Amino acid sequence: MAWGGLIDRYGSRMNIAGKDRPVTLFEGNTPLVPAPKLAEWIGGDIDLYLKYDGMNPTGSFKDRGMTTAITHARAEGAEIVICASTGNTSAAAAAYASRAGMKCVVLIPDGKIAYGKLAGTLAYGAQVVAIRGSFDDGLRLVQEISAVTPIALVNSVNPARLEGQKTAAWEVCEQLGAIPDWLALPVGNAGNISAYWMGFSECWRSECAQLCKKPRVKRPQLLGTQAAGAAPLVDGHPVDHPETKCTAIRIGRPARGDQALQAIKESNGIITKCSDDEIFAAYREVARREGVFCEPSSAAGLAGFKQQIAAGTGPQPGQTVVAVLTGHGLKDPDSAVAEAVAPVTLDADLDTLRRYLLA
Ligand code: F0G
């Protein structure tokens, strides 16, 4: 049967309005890719899988939460939606809003979002406001404006977002045919890790034989990774001036920080931070070894696995582990080109090419 999107597939388990009239781009059902060569690089004799959520329609996991947030907002009568974003939320909000015939306003930190994200957000027709400030400033502003106007807020402080994003946990279990031992992902505003934990917990608590072969047995341990220059949950306090090359997770006051820490505690998991160098190393390796291209921030979970395994505190040999790759590599072409070997330029001539290749 053709894939009908997340509300079609999992709607009976979603607490939102408007499920009879979904706004969908047929998001979800993204690949779970075995990654044995990357596992060798990470070490620790793990059975590694990549949940390639950059394969969603606008190129990031945000589509999972935006099908539900926009469907719900439209059913509640909203005509305008607003969000703050480091780029992926804005692209997803803009796409789903245009599909719903709604207006979309986005606040982005001026000069601090990757080019592919800006391109998408503009192409889908959003009204883009670049603010002189951080994502955190933007989030404060959109919360304030949506409190005093009929504009619907679609950041992940909106519970309808998590109703969609939790489906990724169920897909992982279905695709694996089991519940993984560990699940690692990057943490920014902390909505996604909270949503995964909701998904695994609902699966764990309820009858879900159709989702997992071993229902009620266990939930995975969660490994959340922040960038070292933007690690409020690891450092234990808000970061006023977050700084990292991983612009997607350049966030100093995560709105769902407490919920994320609770999830990590309940899962017997770990919240950690990695340097930009560690995250970018994982970003290069996953593309070169496995042919899977993600954006830099998306590799934070892989860097976290490598760090924790080296310390002896992460997954144990033989365990099944999943790293969530949250956004597509094409979102950030500048980083990809900067990290790669530059192309050579040759005359269009057979001898020249032969000499070059045989040199
Ligand atoms: N990975 C990517 C590619 C992201 O874009 C984000 C968040 C995260 C991970 C972190 O997820 O915030 O739920 O902890 N991006 C938001 C945005 C902030 O505006 O696109 P989180």
Describe the structure.
The structure is a single chain. With 359 residues, the protein is α/β, with parallel strands linked by helices. The chain is 42% helix and 14% strand. It has a six-stranded mixed sheet, sandwiched between helices. A four-stranded parallel sheet has the order 5-4-3-6. Helix 5 links the parallel strand 4 and strand 5. Helix 3 packs parallel to helix 4 and helix 4 runs parallel beside helix 5. The longest helix is centred in the middle third of the chain and has 15 residues. The protein is globular. The N and C termini lie far apart (53 Å). The structure holds ligand F0G. The site of ligand F0G has 22 residues, from helix 4 and helix 9. Ligand F0G binds next to helix 4 and helix 9.
Radius of gyration: 20 Å
> Distance N terminus to C terminus?
53 Å
Helix content: 40-55%
Low-confidence residue ranges = none
H/E series: HEHEHEHEHEHEHHEHEHHEHHEHH
Mean pLDDT: 96
Total helical elements: 15
Bound molecules: ligand F0G
Q: Tell me the strand order in the biggest sheet.
A: 1-2-10-7-8-9
Number of distinct beta strands: 10
The secondary-structure class comes to: alpha/beta
Q: Report the sheet with the most strands, covering strand number, pairing sense and barrel closure.
A: 6 strands, mixed
What's the overall geometry?
globular
Beta-strand percent range: 5-15%
